[in-house]
Amino acid sequence: MLSFFPALYPDELLYSTLARYHIRSGNKSFKQTDLELFGYSSQQVCKITLTNNLNYLVINLPLGSQQTVDNLLQNHTLYPFYATFLMPQEAWLLKNSMSKKLSGSILDIVKVATNFSGDSKKFLKFCPECLEKDTQKYGEPYWHRIHQVPGILVCPTHSVVLHDSSVGVESKGIYYHAASMDNCLLPSKVKIFTNKTLQTLFILANEINWLIHSNFTFRGLAWLRAQYQYYLVHKGLLQTFPGGKFKFDEFGFTQLIFEFYGQEFLEALNPKLTQHQGKYFSYCLFGCDLNPAIDRITHILMIKVLANSIEVFFQ
Ligand SMILES: [Zn+2]
Question: pTM higher than 0.90 for the full model?
């Protein structure tokens, strides 16, 4: 049993608390910290955002701890983000996998491509204003869960652009780095967006934030494809013919997306969206139930354009 464990801050990523534990434990190696917290040491991918073996951690928390695996999953990991676009039984499998010692690939379970936009190049993100406010309020900064969610490029609280820290999200090594003034440095060249892009990024951040806090039941990718067809027909972008044949106005749909979001916004989110023009959108619209990986952000963007509201679309 652990002799102490730091209290989790609001919206703190679990990894961040573990890193603060590492500092206070005085352990010389990260491996030692892993052994204390989880009973074993692993080099799992996505360990920072989708921490597993939570049952072990919770059972070993100091006496009197009220912490639950469910609270950690729902409020301190990226589980709720990846649970969107998963059917109830698939979300259960993810929850179950994170509760136990992981066997198999977490990327298969969350349905994310294995070449997952090069996670090795990704870093934990921070908002300069949160960093300052948290330090004033709690005496130390911490990694926020919401800042690490894919598709969120601005802080939903302060509407300022998030920056990369120097702590990589995925690398083969085991490490616990708490947020600090040393690893959260402002870049010398700050990326400047137009007001329109900034505003759209802020709206998207809040939509995703809503999505991960809502508890809707996803009815599956075949249902999603059927929904798309319904909305596309209503917008005059899709004609259906007997025998399952259809004619899709790829150019018209792409124009709609570009007018709605703007080139700068789409490029900031995912350069693939602008490089392949309409092809990638067609692929996500009509092939979503054939591909084992789900590009959640692209789906969210398309849903917003088609239905105006993610909430309406899902309910
Ligand atoms: Zn902030």
Answer: yes
